[in-house]
What does this fold into?
Amino acid sequence: MTDEHFGVTEAASWIAVPEEGDDKYSRGVVGFVTGSPRYPGAAVLGVEAALRTGVGMVRYIGPDSAAGLVLARRPEAVAAPGRVQAWVLGSGQDASAREEAEANRLYDALAEGLPTVLDGGALDLHASARGPLVLTPHARELARLTGESVEAIIADPATAALSAADRFGAVVLLKGHTTHLADPGGALLRVRSAPAWLATAGAGDALAGVLGALVATHHERLAADSRALLPLAAAAAVIHGLAAERASAGGPFTILDLCVELPHVVRALLVYG
It folds into this structure.
């Protein structure tokens, strides 16, 4: 097992900078199957975060109620099936209330074998994935997946992340006061604490969007070496945390406030790097 801190210097090296010959497809297209009639805002937050992190295109596939909100907020998003290079699935969904249409959308995405971020209500579908996978649970969600107690996971999140990564054959990003990330090979990364004000509804939806953007913009590299998923997930956690710090400035903030700060964080990291 390797155990390393992952910070600003490391994150800066995982931002893909467009070149003159790039187009929206070569930059990367991330698809979202997120949100639900009960939680449509999760779709908005994930799409917003991905676009502000930087990606060639966002494609949204979901219920009309959520799609309407996504397009009202981000008219450049495409709410129709088509080409994608990475998926974000499950934010704002409830596995116990999954309807047939939602299940079909999720299974269709998983069957494509593309790099995929599984969040929230799609975490239980990990065994159906055909491509490289990142799971993004918090402690309670990981407890439901593994059968371990929440208390045990909180007491030793590093071991919990490593065990889950090995068990599920996926990168695990275990959200918490400090983010612990592990891959099936036994590598462990830790990302420094984000402000406590980040413990608010929608934070995980935005993190999944940031990660989806990074994965899509590195789709060619991932096709050659899926081990890049671990540092990409860690870079997403760093960017997300830094945006939260900027949005907070020592006080409360909304997740849309965080999203507004994402381009500034990316720009600062590029200068830093």
